[in-house]
Amino acid sequence: MFRNQYDTDVTTWSPTGRLFQVEYAMEAVKQGSAAIGLRSRSHVVLACVNKAQSELSSHQRKIFKVDDHIGVAIAGLTADGRVLSRYMRSESINHSFTYESPLPVGRLVVHLADKAQVCTQRSWKRPYGVGLLVGGLDESGAHLYYNCPSGNYFEYQAFAIGSRSQAAKTYLERRFESFQESSREDLIKDAIMAIRETLQGETLKSSLCTVSVLGVDEAFHLLDQESIQKVIDTFEKVPEEEEDAGEGDAEPEAATGAAGTGEQGGSGDQDVAPMEI
Amino acid sequence: MTMELWLEQEEEADRETFEMTFMIPIENGHGVKNAEADSQRTLYPYVTGTSVVAIKYKDGILMASDMGGSYGSTLRYKNIERMKAIGKHSLLGASGEISDFQEILRYLDELMLNDNMWDDGNSLGPKEVHNYLTRVMYNRRNKFNPLWNTLVLGGVKNGEKYLGMVSMIGVSFEDNHVATGFGNHLARPILRDEWREDLSFEEGVKLLEKCMRVLLYRDRSAINKLQIAKMTEEGVTVSEPYSLKTFWDFKAFTNPTVGAEGSW
Q: Name one GO biological process term (chain B) (predicted).
């Protein structure tokens, strides 16, 4: 989108009824590296691509535990994401303390959305530049929500946000109907395969992705590298038959039968601001 | 230090909207206020209710209390319902200051209203209400302004039976049978001997009536007009008031001074 005279303030409407600053905040989410969430009846898996500033530095943390039964994956300005994660942890622990009972994730996301909305209606604030995939449990089972800088939230069976997330979304769109009844293992496998879609040809290695699981009988935790690599090994050997055509993506998908010798080539986000990962 | 800062924040909060947020404390430069609200502290109760007794049984919880409100030693009010349903799943019984009980009912009313307004398939069950009440009672105790009640909270949710108690100083626990006030001394020993996991409804009522009868004989603030409440998965019902049959023709009652001439 292009600059116009209505985009300076978050509190200025455009004549067509848009708040451009809010939309620009949503652009920031699209620049972050991909994060993916999927859920079944009883489990939620959150996965993300690890991005490091350079080879010298470690990668940014994009998945946070909010409580035993709630986790969040972020994309966009990680600083904003960290602050919101702390808010979520605070809300969750306050509820636990008062009621000795886990905060239903559906109520947490509403609190989060209301907090984000405030920033779209104050002239001295700016919207949070981070999208959050919140996975958690409540009385009615497992849920996955996406919280947007605009203050909207949506519930999903599966979703992907961040750069090249469209490739992952296409993959998920083909498979989502089976997720509700999926087993935990299949769900994890689908998450990692969706991650692979966003890598667009880079070889998938466990060092490139972070995967987390939570379930009705399983507290939120990150999977260790070995478990992830094991899942990758089950499908990386088989050459892929399907061609993935991401929206507007001209790059053909490279054959994925690599034996792990592929290098992590320079990714195409030269224009990513250093604060966004 | 942090407790005082936090209490400070609590005092600022409007009493009508009882905020139950316990923020991770931050320095904010406030000094600690004196307890200048001395005239606002609860010093002693005025209109009080006596014991409440409750047990778990096969299908849920049974709770009994009489309908008396004493004004000191006068049995002034004889139609006070000391047990009230809270939402779909819980029942609250209280002994102690009746006006404080009504205040607690107001808090819970607001709590349940907000819970219902979410309209999202989640609901506060007896465990959550019990813990909320524990927080309320303990916080008031910390401010030297207690709600002068001992509360019994029972209910059934998703097949799980819950029965707990909170005192005016914030002591809180769960058990298979609980009682307040004199009930602790007169009813609990009976329940310890005779309570079983799989009591039927009739057996449970009989057991409670046995306890209430002893209390009627021996507790001077008890009256012979009681209600029994039942909580099961289907819901909460409070019975109509009724009386227990009593027997006063025990030999010891007919001629009490037979063993001690000259006494009365």
A: proteolysis involved in protein catabolic process
